[in-house]
């Protein structure tokens, strides 16, 4: 495997692409104006958003491959790796790239909001696919940023650029909501597989061996990133993925409390809890009574 190119700064990436750096913390590239390049996998020290217009190779994002389609937005966060392996040939890149460094966001409202844009931690096969109208809105946001970068930096530049980036990210949140909503069949299939996964986890005794199922375990088993899986489940059902796991645990606990003579500690162990008090605390929070109180109440009927 070829050596990883470290693009720690906007300048590093611009140097690789052969374009001028107009701002140390923000960059925008129209790849149609760039000379042919060699593929390379890169480590990013900044946020990067690619608008891919045409297919130009098989990209690797972390350890995953993604054969992207036309009109796709791909989001990369600082600390992530992204790119295609160098096959020794030159290619003409197309599409657009917005780059902004975390330092740009210091002392701005957007800096505290970046954690809300969870799609920066989606895998590339969970990328945002744009309609023609959505693509135009994205390009309008890009043009505002490009306009600011084409002028000398003044006291208004940072606020205007950051505001434009926030508007762009907010639109992307809306577009992802639309993508979740329009992929109804796919989402329902994931929900069914999620339920089956939890059923299998408990029916095969994995809880006793591995402990409580985690959201990360379920996302990995369903071949989805943590954030995409979490967002999909919450937007489809109104309940978080962790909430679904807890609901499953509570349902199984109720069954065992009523149908068996197991002690609270034994039930807790079967459900994957290391300590029975943790089980009792969750049960109390979700059911509004202790496991023993629930068992007594149900025994009275």
Q: Return the structural class.
A: alpha+beta
Largest sheet: 5 strands, mixed
Number of strands: 12
Strand % is 5-15%
Order of helices and strands: EHEEEEEEEEEEHEHHHHHHHHHH
Radius of gyration of CA atoms, rounded to a whole number:
24 Å
* Molecular shape: elongated
Instruction: For the record, give the distance between the C-alpha atoms at the N and C termini, rounded to a whole number.
Output: 67 Å
> Given the structure, what is the number of helices?
12
Report the uncertain regions: 55-69
Percentage of residues assigned to helices: 40-55%
Overall pLDDT score: 91
- What strand line-up does the widest sheet have? 1-4-9-6-7
GO molecular function: DNA-binding transcription factor activity; sequence-specific DNA binding
Pfam family, one: HTH_18
InterPro entries: Homeodomain-like_sf (IPR009057), HTH_AraC (IPR018060), Tscrpt_reg_AraC-type_HTH (IPR020449)
Domain HTH araC/xylS-type: 192-297
How is this structure best described in words?
The structure is a single chain. The chain contains twelve helices and twelve strands. It has helices at residues 10-17, 109-113, 132-149, 157-182, 184-203, 206-210, 215-221, 226-237, 241-259, 264-271, 276-287, 291-299; strands at residues 5-7, 26-30, 37-38, 41-44, 47-52, 59-61, 64-66, 72-76, 81-83, 90-91, 96-100, 128-129. The protein has a five-stranded mixed beta sheet. A five-stranded antiparallel beta sheet has the order 2-11-5-8-12. Strands 3-10 form a two-stranded antiparallel ribbon. It is elongated, with a radius of gyration of 24 Å.
